[in-house]
């Protein structure tokens, strides 16, 4: 299973590593680090469909669902 949120379409990305030990310079490189999205497995009840579905969502998507509503958000994302 891919680590991508179906609502926000966010996945992992490569970002710069950071070392506080004498700051990261060309003499003390830290390289790149893969940063992952905070994904959570959630059961969501959709009253319009009278159904419960389980999705792996990012925490930002969970906040969006709480604000806009499950049916509207998932419909816009093309999940249902």
What does this structure look like?
This protein has 80 residues and is an alpha+beta fold. It has a single domain, classed as Ribosomal protein L28/L24 (Ribosomal Protein L24e, Chain: T, Roll). The protein contains two helices and four strands; from the N terminus they run ββββαα. The chain has helices at 59-68, 70-77; strands at 13-16, 32-35, 39-46, 51-58. A two-stranded antiparallel sheet has the order 1-2. Strands 3-4 form a two-stranded antiparallel ribbon. A hairpin with a 4-residue loop joins β3 and β4 (51-58). α1 crosses α2.
Distance between the termini: 19 Å
Instruction: Output the structural class.
Output: alpha+beta
Cross-sheet strand order for the largest sheet: 1-2
Topology as a string of helices (H) and strands (E): EEEEHH
The CATH architecture can be given as Roll
How many helices? The count is 2
Kindly report the name of the CATH homologous superfamily: Ribosomal protein L28/L24
Task: Find the CATH topology.
Answer: Ribosomal Protein L24e, Chain: T
- Coarse morphology: rod-shaped
CATH class: Mainly Beta
Helix proportion range: 10-25%
The biggest beta sheet, please?
A: 2 strands, antiparallel
Mean of residue pLDDT values: 90
Low-confidence blocks of residues: none
How many strands? 4
